[in-house]
Design brief:
alpha/beta, Rossmann fold, 8-stranded mixed sheet, 8 strands, globular, binds acetoacetyl-coenzyme A, 3-hydroxyacyl-CoA dehydrogenase NAD-binding domain-containing protein
Length: 297
């Protein structure tokens, strides 16, 4: 891809750290195990969250086994490569650590700050942020050159793209490792500017935001869905909001509206929509909590 540095600079990955055990983190933790066949360690705020993430991965491995995509030896091997902990010192020998924690710059800086105490000087850090500034996230690191944006899409197992984001500080080794890793995961990588929403969320936020505005302005939600369906994208706007999760989608709107107030639908209105609509429960977070079921009624 344009802008990708010499792949010989890439660091060999022997162990991956995943910070966060939520839906996105668990999905890509599984992908790292499957495609790179290296140990993956997952952490979160408490053991219950960690256990939930690991259980999800075990479940998905079981489904692959049931579909005949994995034999039982391979499935067991994958399970044995996954471990969960709240002890961040166990990240010490990870050479690639990627976070998918709450989309707040301060939270991401804090978790990276904790992890950086334990990892080797040349270990790579990656953020799965979907719309925040990677440079700002890295600004409090002792080694900001090791940070690269590595943005997956939901569902991780099937979406073919990773957006790789470079900051002015990102080293060639970190960037090269990101590209080689994406290839190892069998994803297409594109290098995007470190601008709000990168490329994909910038476009999707527009679709989701305008769909929300149409409902807010009085068109029933299911009419918006029906009207959009023949356009032929794999998902209609509210199916997409549901897949991504209502809260995540609203957060992306927030970031975009903050960055480009004249171009994006303010999240304040996005939330007002939730109050107006009979089918949207503003306290629920999409598929994670079954919002789609209420939307189908
Ligand atoms: N996990 C694992 N595999 C999944 C999956 C999931 N959550 N959802 C679907 N799949 C797999 C299915 O198992 C199936 O695989 P096989 O054919 O090998 O059995 C395959 O995907 C197709 O699934 P289905 O036949 O059930 O459904 P479909 O044909 O309707 O496709 C879809 C489902 C791939 C999700 C498709 O609807 C799609 O591409 N939707 C658009 C998704 C999208 O735009 N994602 C980006 C969201 S934005 C984002 O993530 C960024 C952010 O930062 C917020």
């Amino acid at each position: 891809p344009v802008g990708a540095p010499d792949k010989s600079l890439a660091k060999k990955i022997t162990k991956v750290g995943v910070i966060g055990a939520g839906l996105m983190a668990s999905q890509f933790a599984l992908l790292f195990v499957r495609r790179l066949q290296v140990p993956v360690i997952i952490t979160d705020l408490d053991q219950a969250r960690v256990d939930k993430g690991v259980a999800y991965i075990h479940d998905e491995i079981g489904k692959l086994e049931a579909k005949g995509r994995l034999d039982s030896d391979s499935a067991n091997k994958l399970r044995s490569l996954v471990s969960g902990t709240t002890d961040k010192s166990l990240y010490a020998d990870c050479d690639f650590v990627i976070e998918a924690v709450f989309e707040e710059v301060g939270v991401k800086q804090q978790v990276f700050g904790e992890i950086e105490k334990f990892i080797a000087d040349d270990a790579i850090l990656a953020t799965n942020t979907s719309s925040l500034s990677v440079e700002e996230i890295g600004s409090t690191l002792a080694h900001p050159e090791r940070l690269v944006g590595f943005h997956f899409f939901n569902p991780v197992a099937v979406m073919p793209l990773i957006e790789i984001v470079k900051t002015p500080q990102t080293s060639d080794a970190a960037l090269s490792t990101a590209f080689v890793t994406a290839k190892g995961l069998r994803k297409n990588a594109v290098l995007t500017a470190d601008a709000p929403g990168f490329v994909v969320n910038r476009l999707l936020a527009k679709v989701m935001g305008e769909a929300a505005r149409a409902v807010y302005e009085g068109t029933p939600l299911l009419t918006v869905e029906k009207a959009f369906a023949p356009i032929g994208l794999p998902m209609t706007p509210f199916q997409l909001i549901d897949l991504v999760g209502w809260k995540v989608a609203a957060h992306v709107q927030d970031t975009m509206a903050h960055a480009f107030p004249e171009r994006f639908f303010a999240s304040e209105n996005f939330h007002k929509l939730a109050e107006l609509s009979e089918v949207v429960d503003k306290d629920k977070a999409g598929r994670v909590t079954g919002w789609s079921k209420s939307a189908e009624k």
